[in-house]
Amino acid sequence: MAQYQISVDSQLLHQLFLGNTQDSGVAKLLESVLNQILQAQVTEQLEAQRYERTENRQGYRNGSYPHQLHTRIGTITLSVPRIRGGKFTTELFARYQRSEQALILTMMEMVVNGVSTRKVAQVTEELCGTEFSKSTVADLCKRLDPIVTAWNNRPLSDSRFPFVLVDALYLKVREDGRVRNRGVMLAVGVNTDGYREVLGLMLGDTESEESWTEFFNWLKSRGLRGVDLIVSDDHGGLVRSIRQQLQGVTWQRCQTHFMRNVLDTSPKALKDEIHTHVRAILEAPNPEAARLLLQQTLAAYEDKAAKAMRILEAGFDDVTAVLSLPEKYRKRLRTTNSVERLNEEVRRRERVIRIFPNRESVIRLIGALLMEQDEKWASGKKYLDMVEYLEWRESRPKSVSKVTRIM
């Protein structure tokens, strides 16, 4: 990823901290930064600074033209460089505005369909112009929807994903004149290079076994393969679908949800003690040590917290499945926390919308957000160093290998 030297003058900082409104200062600061990035990018493409004489020069600057960028902190004006006899290219606008466009489009649809509040109408008009119509919304959707749809249906066969984490969240969607709760199913994979990747999202009527089965079949049809461990909560339909559709894969029950289940059924006076014992089980160095600690905990509390101990014993094998992996991989694979952090980002935008005007707007907004997150992961640091895992997997006897081959 390119790195740029950005400078900020004192007048901008003065406006940022002492101006009449904070948003206006942030908008000016953002405008200055993005204009500097555009100038740095045209220098990269021409391979020459302004007025620099060099044999490597690829062209000449030819002024600039204004381009307005609508953001939630106001409208900013950028000076987009022109190149004589050529074309200046940048992904800056598309990357910055993709999720912004999805959010604004959803709000616009609410207004067009007559289901929004007066405030939403004012916000969308301020961001998108004085007026907009159904045809305006349709034209904008035609530009953004194919990009999100293509990303969400891209082939997965180029990589293997030993670790997969799945979760769901519920949103309100207006359908046939009624507001209905709909489940959004989401999967994140860790590939053999150690990078996280959003595998896809799907909107279902409910979080049922049938919906999850459709979701996993869709992932497999796109080439999902090499799955060794899948992490999720204990939703009945989800677990049954995993065991049916991903046979041979080890299922890791989310330890955060499991701990909550145990403590919710524990006597109040014993919650802290039981939490300490269960945490020791989950952090044991190996499955044998975990089972020994389990027997000690059951013996100590089976009379005083019978229901909690039944949950602990019944879920032990699934919640400690991650202990079979090398130790360095356990912490990040024992819960669905990383997926739930994605859900929090979705919730932050969903609170603005509250009720989605249709199913398409759900995929558009959430897909745009996840697409941008996917790009950040791909260009950032590795989530896991997979060398030790791959060596460990190859050293396992073939008869006990649980890696599923999804061709």
Automatic annotation (TrEMBL):
<comment type="function">
    <text>Required for the transposition of the insertion element.</text>
</comment>
<comment type="similarity">
    <text>Belongs to the transposase mutator family.</text>
</comment>
<keyword id="KW-0238">DNA-binding</keyword>
<dbReference type="Pfam" id="PF00872">
    <property type="entry name" value="Transposase_mut"/>
</dbReference>
<keyword id="KW-0814">Transposable element</keyword>
<keyword id="KW-0233">DNA recombination</keyword>
<dbReference type="InterPro" id="IPR001207">
    <property type="entry name" value="Transposase_mutator"/>
</dbReference>
<protein>
    <recommendedName>
        <fullName>Mutator family transposase</fullName>
    </recommendedName>
</protein>
<keyword id="KW-0815">Transposition</keyword>
